[in-house]
Amino acid sequence: MDKKCVDDFRLKFGKQELVPIMIGGMGVDISSADLALEVARLGGVGHISDAMVPTVTDRRFKTKFTRDKFQLYKANFMNSDKSVVQFNLDQLAEATKLHVGNTMQAKRGDGMVFINCMEKLTMNAAKDTLRVRLASALDAGIDGITLSAGLHLGSFALIEDHPRFRDAKLGIIVSSLRALQLFLRKNARLNRAPDFIVVEGPLAGGHLGFGLDDWQQYDLATITAEVLAWIKEQHLDIPVIPAGGIFTGTEATGFLNNGAAAVQVATRFTVTQEGGLPARVVQEYFKASEADVEVNGVSPTGYPMRMLKSSPAIGDGIRPNCEAYGYLLDGNGNCAYIQAYNREVAANPEVKKIKVMDKTCLCTQMHDFNCWTCGHYVYRLKDTSHRLDDGSYQVLSAEHVFKDYQFSRDGQVTLPARVESAN
Description:
Blueprint: E1 11-13, E2 16-18, E3 21-23, H1 33-41, E4 45-49, H2 53-61, H3 65-73, H4 89-105, E5 112-118, H5 126-139, E6 144-148, H6 155-158, E7 169-174, H7 177-186, E8 196-200, E9 206-207, H8 220-233, E10 240-243, H9 249-257, E11 263-265, H10 279-287, E12 293-296, E13 305-308, E14 315-316, H11 336-347, E15 355-356, H12 362-367, H13 398-407
Parallel strand pairs: 3-11, 4-5, 5-6, 6-7, 7-8, 8-10
Antiparallel strand pairs: 1-2, 9-13, 12-13, 14-15
């Protein structure tokens, strides 16, 4: 009997059937519009991210949202109290609609484009800013929203009156059955179940839904099996999509054979031409060894993060720039990095350029592509491409990686046709 591959399965949303490959929503703009559109063209589900969306539109459309915000609050730059720094909600809506609307207008093919929305982007007004981000994405025609980086117990309620609340595909990322149960219980009154559930395991990239000291005790297969069993027990019909550490089509097929509706993958798409990483960073990902990867606590969100140890963000004691960014400010204008920075400044009054090792200014570092978050298996990327004569690795196309997941068997990874020089 022939062994199955990913293409033997389909992700079903009602009558719509898709290739069961979803690309994770990597911010800031690593899961770019170009990447999401290519995946949709190929019949899968692409993601864009709404992380720091005003800065993304500044890059894509030459808007001046970040500059204007800094100009408004620059008198507060030297002040440790950032409570006065607020986002203009109308501009936030405009930026979101620009990013989403232009992406959706360019969409071709039978796939879908979703947007990843992080609850931990508290933006000094968590509920108001999240409501605007969600509603504006729906206004602009996004196919679906994936709620991430938080329990999102109140997020559905923020948009329950939106005319597309029951039309768009709305899903949640969880890392445990308990988190899913809390979400469903909290939203039961809305009579609106999620359209899909992404189960993210401990080998994923970026922020993790596990403890810094215990993530090694968990595995994706076990958590996914628990969720699938409970979904069946409750007689619910919700697609379950495992994510985190699924590196080959054969691994993906294993999850599909065991009841998953699709898989979410990301790391292998960081080194594609359509992805948003600068070329210099793409090569750092290719060169990485297993020893180069760590899970640390430098994120001000309080979540552990997986990244390359060589990330320039680690230890970089730059002054907080909340007046321009400020995406992680809580409702009182506080951020864990501000506290860490001020502590080091006070302890080292004669040092011009301090180091802050325990936290990083995530907004600035993500904006500058200096926080190199990655999945656990980033060190296997070199085995998916060719090393060229100049020592660099050949950058891949999203179509090549997508189709390798879709059609590969027996644990194999198909290499691309070799080119003479790096792209």
